[in-house]
Each structure stands twice: as C-alpha cells, then as structure tokens.
Amino acid sequence: MLRILSPQDVKDIDTACVDSAGIPIATLMENAATSISEIVLVRYPEQRRILVLCGNGNNGGDGFAVARMLSELHTVTVAADVDEEKMSDATRANFLRIKNSLPMLSLREAQSVVNNVDVVIDAVFGVGFRGSLKSTEVDWFSEIRAPFKIAIDVPSGLDALTGSADEFTFCADLTISMEGLKLGMVCDRGRRVSGEVCIATIGAPLDILEMHTTAFALEQSDVRQILPERQRQTSKFDYGHVLVIAGSASMRGAAALTSHAALRAGAGLVELVTPSIHPLIPREVIATEAPATSEGTFSLQALDILRAKIQRATAIAVGPGIGDNRESLELLVDVLNGVNERVPIVIDADGLRIVNKITTTLKHCVLTPHHREFEYVVERKGRLSGSTCLERITASRDLAQQRKCIVHLKSHPSITTDGAKTYLTLGGNPGMATAGSGDVLTGIIAGLCAQHVPLLQAAALGAYIHAAAGDAAIRNRAPESIIAGDIVESIGDVIPS
Q1: Which domains does the chain have, with CATH numbers?
Q2: Ranges 84-93, 276-285, 374-383: which has the least confidence
C-alpha cells in the first residue's frame, strides 16, 4: 500500500521524528540521501556524468548529500545559487562537505553544461513550491534536454498539494519521493511531470508515518491481503449472497453487467430482481422479473418481492439502469428503509437520487457517484464543476462525514473515503469512459461486501480491481474499442491466484 502525503503531512512527519523519536534533521537528511543514492546506483551501476541542481532548503540539502555519495562512482557537478544564511544547519553542513571537493557552478552557469551530461538531478524546491516559477527559475529548467532527468521528492515547479504545475516545471523521467507519493504528484498535471516514481525513506518510524498519512493507494500486493482466504471445506453460502436491484426495459444491460461483475468479484450467489431480463444475462445469476410500470421501470407492485429478497441478502447493489420514474424511486426508498443496517448497500446511478429520502442510517452504504450524480446527493448544482483534485477530495470527505457513509467519487484519480481515511485509485484509462463501466464497479464492490470485506476496504479494493481490469482490457486492443463487458472479463486476470 502506497502512502500519499500532503506537504503538511511531510512537515508533521519531520517534526515528529525530531520531537517524538529524537532523530536529528541531519540524520533524516543523511538517511534520505543514502536511500536516494541507492536507487540511482541501481539505475546507473557504471560511471556517468551527473549534474545536481540544488536549492538552499532541505531539498537542496538532500541534493548536496546525494552529490557527495554519487561522486564515489560518478563524475558529479553541483549547480547552486548558494546563500548560506537561508540554509538550515543540516543543509549547510552538507554543502560545506562538498564545497571544496566537487565542481560547483551557479544555476545560470549550469546552462552551459546541462546538455552535456547523462543525468540531471533536481533538488531545488521540493514540497515547498507554490505558485509560478520566476523568470530566472524558468531559465534554469526550460533548456534542460539531458538524456535522463531525476527529481528528488517533487519536481521543481510542481505544487505538491494541488498538482498544479508551472509551464516550465522540471519534467522528470523519474521522481524519487520520500516515504510516499505526494498528493500533487497524482493530481492534475502532477502525474505528467513526475514520470516514474520510486519511494525512498528518511528512516521515519512506522508509527509516526501511520499517524501522519493523509491518504493511500492500493497496490497489487494488497489484493490478496484484503480478500478473505478461501478454504477447501466451503460452499457458495460462505461467500455471500448479493441481491442486485437494477435495470429497466430500456436499460437491461446495466442489471446484467452489475450481476456479472458481482459474480466475477467472488460472490457465492448473485440474485437479480429487474423489470426486464437481458437475454445475455449470465446463466449463473438467479433472475426474477419484477412488475413494471408502463415505462418499463420498477412498479410499486414489486414491493413484496423485494422485501422478501432483501431478507436473504448479505449485500445489496441498487440503482444501475433503474431510470428516474417517480414510482420506481418511491419503491426503492421504501425498500432501502427496510434493510437491516448490518447488510451493506452499494448505491449507484439513479439510485443516488433517493439517498436524501432514506430515513434510516447510511453507515452501511457505499455511494458511488460521478460528478453530476454527486449533485443529487449534495443538492447543489455545479458543486464539482471545474473543481481541482484537492477540492474533489475535500468534497468527498465532507459528504462522507456528514452522511456517515462511504463515498466513492468516480474521477481521476477516483476517491474513496469514510471522511477520515481516504484511498485514491491511480489506475484506469480513458477507454473506461464507456456505457456500463460504472455498473461493473457497483457489482465488484457489492461482490466484495458480500464476502465480508469491510465497507471502506471493499469500496477501495473494488475501485482498484475495476481500474486494473480496465488496464488489462487495453493490452490487446485500442482504448476506444473497450466495452464494459471487456472489463468484466478481465476481472479474473487481475485478482492474483
């Protein structure tokens, strides 16, 4: 699991290391430089010409120390506009250790050599950068054409909180980020300018890291850690019973996709109640056709059927393809108000129109809106229009706290939160912007809930599997050609055996 840190988190971790763990800043800086240097030496085990650009802050202190360590193997030149009065004690100490032993240039002088080296390492600003680069700083970065560019912690010119990036931001091929990704590196332009990312360490104790981490991103190794282990002496009843309440005459496919995805995610049994059964629904799904309105949507006459079905379910998925017929929505309000709070409910699509009419608790619910559906719930048109990644995270956390539920906002990155802990889904691709993709996600999350995966983890893992399946689906086809069924069929390829 990857940590995703805000600049404030970074500051708090440094402070806690010094104040609580008694680790001096100089030691943290040396640890960081050692970890960074080891990563660079793996990439370049043979001698290279390396130019290290350093600022006067702690990021520059890391750079001075890295230059010293790399100089044992490589030909290293350091470029810095030195102002010792602006340096911390640790940064100054690392500068003084190389002042007379390595070639030193000003940052402006570095322009004459920057394209005659093999590697440029950026250690100018780090997490403290805000706003835009000054004209002199633009000159530093605009002419860099080195074969390989490495940023320490954060590329200079990138806001580590918001992901906004100056036009002339140092565009790294590799960013070596300390103790975790920075929030700005996964938002907006941050991903583009950060390149490949490796994680290095400052030697912070685990308890301090856990205390001061803002958000997380799941990795492939987390999938089996979260999924319950399957025993030989089990049956379908040990892996949950998903009830899917979805579909209408005009959107039968949504119900079929949700049901199919729940099965692929591992649910032992999937039952579908829908006004109109799709002819290609998987044969493993137990389907019941419900009474319908003249529009082909759920009729109030389906109430008794649904009340009986929810008594046997261990997880419920509701909303995909149901439409916005008033009678159908009234029915679903009645049904969901009768669900035992121990039974997880995943609410998606038009089902989100009724969230504010549910009078019982939402603490067992996962809401999965995209931007426009988010407005149904918060009852504020344009709430996320033109929003930044940071604003979307804040809005999702606020909603989760207010309604005491899990919110999964479909965006890029997608955001899953209970208001306190947040997961960002970093995978996925533009080909997944296709009809039915969200219905697949609803089914995956419901299938995981049925297996008693805790609600927040089920939503986060469901989003991870959904994105990974979408990425698997484009390996042998163009993104434009992906359909939701391709994502369903790829689920089994991304869950480790």
Answers
A1: 2-217 (3.40.50.10260), 223-494 (3.40.1190.20)
A2: 374-383
